[in-house]
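Predict both folds.
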Amino acid sequence: MAVSRPGLIVAAPRSGAGKTTVALGLMRAFARRGLAVQPFKCGPDYIDSAFHTVAAGRPSCNLDTWAMSERTLAELVSRDAGSTDLAIVEGVMGLFDGAAGDGQAGRGSTADLAALLGWPVVLVLDVAGQTETAAAIATGCAGYRADVVVAGVILNNVASPRHLDLIAPAFARVGVRLFGAFGRDERLALPQRHLGLVQAVETAEIDRRLEHFADVIAAAVDLDGVRSCARASRLAMASATVDAAPVVSPPGQRIALAQDQAFSFIYPHLLARWREAGAEILPFSPLADQPPDAGCDVVWLPGGYPELHAGALAAANRFHDGLRALAARGVSIHGECGGYMVLGQGLVDQLGRRHAMSGLLALETSFAQRRLHLGYRRARLQRDCPLGAAGSEIFGHEFHFASVLSSGDEPLVECRDAAGEAVPEAGARRGAVSGTFFHFIDGQQT
């Protein structure tokens, strides 16, 4: 029987209420106490997870009820949280906000994950401009779903002690526990760019920033009270399939993986699964003009920010020559989102300058004509590729601002969104080279 240590979920009624600040502060504060803290991120997010890893000192992992099966979720919670003192999940969007349709284990909402795992919610409320209304919001969240437990509340943006005195009695009256409150502090903000936060590896003095987060949370919040509300995951404890063969097999035995500031978006659970299955990961940096290992049997180019480094990537001749040599030998090469764009003919940056890419696919993309593409993707493979065999169904997520100027290779997938509606994303394959705009998360549970 799988065993899980206690866990809890940090959520909020809306995006921008401060749940990232609170989650990071709790992770670092508990880690400073000597606890082994396992961080998780609800939903398809790379950037927050990287901050979690720095804050807690352990790799963060995504938990996504839309894209992942219950078996995958049980496997990840048991593997990652089983040997720790406390698991902390950062939620996504508002507590009950999810996709338009059901996925493998839910709609991707934080509430779906809380209900599935049985982990209680610590609700973060931004109370700027509010007093008793904050208690009404908390009461509404606590009573909206019987299978979701709101253990208590942390208040953000409290203007003054007087402001708190006007809020706290209402929480006592409705019986919602108040774990603590903190005020506005510009040092709790993290720098942002178009896809969200600036990446952890690019954030100046990240440890100093996280120490301040922990200082604020430790001073303002009842940490012992928060820890005492954590509960073991009933999903992991009930799962009898955790030790079964994984749903997703590695795409090869020796996987050359692009890893640098232009190629950083790959889900940690995929790398863990590949390694557990015996695959060898061979990192290389296209930005440093490193070619993929000539002895690899598959190349994987993750997403990231190629548009911010287009000039350097265009000039990386050893990298491109290495890709072309492997493609000529029939070695499988797959790119996701940014990696897919780099496999194309060219990339136009936001200033309208075109940069030649590897030319292994016909794709031509532009950031001068920005268009948001965002949402879950359910895809049926039309052809064999590193994502799986033709006919299999996979789940992923698309998030980018690139426009397609031209394409011309054979389509790789038939793709639908969370509501079941067809979307233009078809990916591409030419010989052993393939790519998609969406990021692969999990295979279909059978």
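Second protein follows, with its predicted structure tokens after the sequence.
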Amino acid sequence: MSTASAPTPATRAERKERTRQALLDAALDLSADRGLGAVSLREVARHAGIVPTAFYRHFSSMDELGVTLAADTMRVLRRLLREARRTPGPAGARQSLDVLVQQVRAHKAAFRFLARERHGGLPQVASAISVELRLLTSELAADLGRAPGLENWEFDDLEMAADLLVTAMLDFVLDLLAVDRAGSEQEADVVTRGEKQMRLILLGTAAWKPGRTTRKPR
């Protein structure tokens, strides 16, 4: 008789989280070629191995599932980029690019979902992605405001600079999604070009002399 102890049964919360993640993964798989708007709740439930009625224990609708999928992916990315920005200047920009490369490699389907649903997808999902991007821009603007030489910038000017950086990051992600193989020469070229773009924006930011304008009320 084996003396090995039996595995500890999963708790109800753990089982619920596994099912929730299975639904999110199923939505990613099924929407890869046709968009989330063309995927039915029944298809997602069947793909995840549950009955359709059990879907509602986790999400109220496909719209809510899509919003959750977008928000979860973006929140992880925002946290990792926030950590990378603790290193100031070009080194921090390079670390941010490294974070993007690692995340796109590990979660390519999720980033394809974001790129596809950002324009032309379900309105609620597109709106959630826009909100997360605005939060990313605002966080980056706040960090720029602590950089040497930018302490006295108006927040509107900081947001303008941050928006340029976020736009460059989005273009960088799209280029990465087109790369066939991780670690290839094609990927290295994308990273080199992305780093140059980030450096150009940072150099331009350092040289910019913003006008003294009245801060708009928020």
